Please model this.
Amino acid sequence: MESEMTVHDGGCHCKNVRWRVQAPTKVVAWSCNCSNCSMRGNTHFIVPSERFELLGNSEQFLTTYSFGSHTAKHTFCKVCGITSFFYPRSNPDGVAITYRCVDPGTLTYVEVNYFDGQNWENSYNQSNIASQSKVDSGN
Model:
């Protein structure tokens, strides 16, 4: 999906965690049914880590949860509990942005694809999720 790049700001519900990300105005987001994402209702798009910036003193309000392979790092706000971004297993060098945590006004279109996280390896091999951060970076 081709679209112009822009700067998106976003963060958690209580605004203690704030970030800025450079990404297209139109994104492909992933709805995952793994045990963690399905409980949180997370739908995210992936960007290269060099296009993500944590702002201000946000780091002090973050905590991290990992499980299973411990590759994914699920970050969330210590105050409000919202996961506005995390480091995904599918793209450990990228950042998964919860698209609903992007401030209004910069995302013009979100296409949602489904990832079968309950059958992670099979879904990973059949989807293009691994190349998503490369797509979003223009590579």
